[in-house]
Write a structure and sequence with these properties.
The structure is a single chain. The chain contains 3 helices and 4 strands, in the order ββαββαα. By secondary structure, it is of the alpha+beta class. Helix 2 packs antiparallel against helix 3. The longest helix has 31 residues.
């Protein structure tokens, strides 16, 4: 059975889960920013502790959401460029970006609706 330990972050060691060490310091700090905005946390012994995040599966789900939000933000930036290029006939490429963004949005709308039904 998987050991349950609270997710913790401190300045010297960053996160206390090996999976998060696959990300460089900037990536871990970006993930930390997302967690601080969206999850419950407290300060304990010079660390930020996330008491509701206690296993690898939760971290994996949060990382997938974080990675998709970064991908979505990058796609929106690309859309701005494509909108400029559109004047020169790049309509098909713009449609592909729209579709990718919609797929990401749909994935989280579906999971949110499932979570609401559970409650």
């Amino acid at each position: 059975m998987e050991e349950k330990k609270e997710l913790k972050f401190n300045v010297e060691q960053l996160f206390n889960y090996a999976k998060l060490h696959e990300y460089d310091e900037d990536g871990q700090k970006g993930f930390l920013g997302t967690l601080i905005r969206e999850e419950q946390w407290k300060i304990e012994n010079n660390s930020i502790v996330f008491p509701n995040i206690v296993n690898e599966e939760q971290i994996e789900n949060l990382l997938n959401k974080f990675n998709d939000s970064i991908l979505r933000a990058n796609l929106v930036i690309k859309q701005g460029v494509i909108n400029q290029i559109y004047l020169y006939g790049a309509e098909e490429f713009r449609k592909q970006l729209d579709k990718q963004i919609e797929e990401i949005d749909k994935k989280y709308k579906k999971s949110k609706n499932k979570d609401d039904k559970i409650l």
